[in-house]
């Protein structure tokens, strides 16, 4: 059995639109130890796991002519090399589900991993943000959340700057990371990051081995507030935003689904993801949404 590598990579794992970039801004602000917020276009926290350039450089070969499956088969070796040669601590965003390859080895090897911070968010709210991100209808976003073959950069003819990312359904993605054997992990909810920031971000900093005083933590939390990220984006387009998306940092509130989803859409999401939503506290045993509600959402 593989064991975690104390010198390995830290992963920031999440389904898209679940708070990963927000978490990275917090980390960047904490590491900067500055009174001024870090530029959202200079979040030097580490490469995304699906970066074609990052993986290709680690392997030392051109991977552009390889198939998705062939590249995936080589990704564990790339991450092992990076774990041994990366040097300074870094915190790598990853949207891939925790999947296994044809030889049954995990795409993300435990022996190259120092820890995985798993960020989860209520799929009722994810659906709205994903629709905005993908420039599609909410119904289409709900279908994607339930699609066991959903992923990014899956085209066979175009070479993307990112590798294929197999997301699976929201439930499968969440379970894949929370059930991965021998993985050193911490799970945090987006809702707790909003409503219990000091406690939740302290847990994040401690897990990621980032030493910080209470004042440094408070400053980083303050500099990472959604309204400050939105203000920066209003002045200068966020370079990680999809080309056709007007705003990446949209609302960031808890419970916005109450303003945006129909009863039928709510029922479908709960039906699609009942077991995992119940496990994470997003619904009760009768299938009713729990009161993880932001005051701003109810006042909107």
TrEMBL record:
Pfam families: Sulfotransfer_1 (PF00685). Keywords: Transferase. Its EC number is 2.8.2.36. InterPro entries: P-loop_NTPase, Sulfotransferase_dom. Residues 10-274 form the Sulfotransferase domain. GO terms for molecular function: sulfotransferase activity. PANTHER family: SULFOTRANSFERASE SULT (PTHR11783). Belongs to the sulfotransferase 1 family. This is Desulfo-A47934 sulfotransferase. It comes from BD1-7 clade bacterium. The lineage of its organism: Bacteria, Pseudomonadati, Pseudomonadota, Gammaproteobacteria, Cellvibrionales.
């Amino acid at each position: 059995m593989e064991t975690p590598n104390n010198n390995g990579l830290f992963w920031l794992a999440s389904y898209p639109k679940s708070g990963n970039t927000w978490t990275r801004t917090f980390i960047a602000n904490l590491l900067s130890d500055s009174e001024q917020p870090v530029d959202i276009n200079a979040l030097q926290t580490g490469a995304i796991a699906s970066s074609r350039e990052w993986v290709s450089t680690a392997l030392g070969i051109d991977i552009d002519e390889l198939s998705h499956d062939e590249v995936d088969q080589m990704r564990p070796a790339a991450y092992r090399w990076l774990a041994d040669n990366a040097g300074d601590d870094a915190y790598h965003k990853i949207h891939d589900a925790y999947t296994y390859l044809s030889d049954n080895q995990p795409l993300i090897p435990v022996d190259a991993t120092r820890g995985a911070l798993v960020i989860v968010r209520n799929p009722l709210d994810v659906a709205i943000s994903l629709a905005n991100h993908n420039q599609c209808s909410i119904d289409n976003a709900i279908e994607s959340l339930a699609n066991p073959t959903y992923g990014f950069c899956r085209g066979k003819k175009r070479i993307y700057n990112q590798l294929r990312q197999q997301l699976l359904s929201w439930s499968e993605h969440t379970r894949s990371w929370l059930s991965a054997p021998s993985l050193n992990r911490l799970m945090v909810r987006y809702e707790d990051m909003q409503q219990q920031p000091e406690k939740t971000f302290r847990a994040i900093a401690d897990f990621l081995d980032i030493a910080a005083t209470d004042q440094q933590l408070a400053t980083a939390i303050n500099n990472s507030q959604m309204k400050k990220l939105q203000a920066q984006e209003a002045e200068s387009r966020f370079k990680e935003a999809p080309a056709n998306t007007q705003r990446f940092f949209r609302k960031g509130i808890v419970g916005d689904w109450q303003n945006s989803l129909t009863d039928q859409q709510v029922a479908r999401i709960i039906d699609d993801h009942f077991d995992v939503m119940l496990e994470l506290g997003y619904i009760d045993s009768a299938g009713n949404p729990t009161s993880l509600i932001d005051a701003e959402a109810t006042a909107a």
